[in-house]
Target: Pyrroloquinoline quinone biosynthesis peptide chaperone PqqD
Amino acid sequence: MSGHDPTQDGRPKLRASVKMRYDPVRKRFVLLLPEKAVLLSETAAEILQLCDGGSTVAELIADLERKYPTAELRADVVEFLAQAVSKRWVEWVLPA
Model:
């Protein structure tokens, strides 16, 4: 990843071993990982749904800002994505 700042030009996506499913009983999204499940907050689920490897972080933030025009989102989204990467939920797809 040298030479790239993933928070600028990286495209976040869920790792292949991670699946996100809606749990109708709990009425929340659940992240399914090898040997465990994580019940997601509404905010976390909304961010992770946008992590498809096709959008940059800036594009992801722009999508969220259109939905929540009065919110300051950039720092929180970047911090959440950094945590999601460290937890091995998300990985970066970097431009060639």
